[in-house]
Model the fold of this input.
Amino acid sequence: MRYAIYFTPPAHDPLTLAAAQWLGRNAFSGEAMEHPAIRAIDIHDIAFNTALPRRNGFHATLKAPFRLAPDVTEPMLLRHLMRFAGAHDPFELPKLEIVRPCNFFGLAPVIPCEAMRLLAASVVQEFDAFRAPLTEAELERSDPGDLSAPQFANLHRWGSPYVMDEFRFHMTLTGPLTAVEMPRFELALREYFDPYLRKPVEVANLALFVEEEPGAPFQVHSLHPMGRVAARRIA
Done:
C-alpha cells in the first residue's frame, strides 16, 4: 500500500464534482463518472486522454506517493497528519486558470501562491520520516533521464523531483497530448471549467490518499481540517 498527501477540495465542492466528471472518476467514492458532452471532442477522446489523471484522482500533490517506513503504522501517520493540519491556518488560492505546464493541461493559480509553496515544503519535510526509502526500481521509474541537477537531488533526498524550489502547484486534468490535440482540449477545458473558477478556492484541509495495491486507483482515505479549531478538537 502507498499513501500520498494531497490537496483536493471537499467531496461536494462544485469544482470537485466537475473535475470528477471530466476525469471520469470520483476520488472520494471511487465511482466511475460519465464524461461530459463537449463540442468538438468525442467522449472517447476525453476518456483516453484523461486515463492517467483519472487513476490519481483530482488533486494537487504535496507529498508524492510513498510506502510507510518499517517502524511506522497507519494510525501513527493519521495522528500526525491531524495534528499537523490543525497547526496550519487555512488560506485562499489566487484565482485558478487552465494552464499547460508541459505537454498536458491542469489548473494552477494565475499568480504564484507563497502560502501554498510554504505549506508544500513543510509537508515534504515533516512527513519524510514516515516514508520508506525508494527502491532502486522506484528510483529508475522516477528518473526519466531529463531531470535537472536540483530535481535529481530532490528525488534522492525527498523521494520526488518536484519539491522545494522545484514545486509548482497544479491539479492535472489530462495526460500527455500531441500538438494537434492541444488546441481542441484547451478550448474545451476553458469552456467547461470557467463556471467553477469564478470564486477563490479555499485550502482548508489536507487529504490523505491511498493506493491499496500497485496499479490500483488512488482514493481519498480522509480529509484533515486545517486551523486552530481543528487543533483543539484533536488535542
User: Anything to note?
Assistant: The first helix runs from residue 14 to 23. The radius of gyration is 18 Å. The longest strand covers residues 60-66. Residues 2-234 form a domain with the Cyclic Phosphodiesterase; Chain: A, fold (CATH 3.90.1140.10).
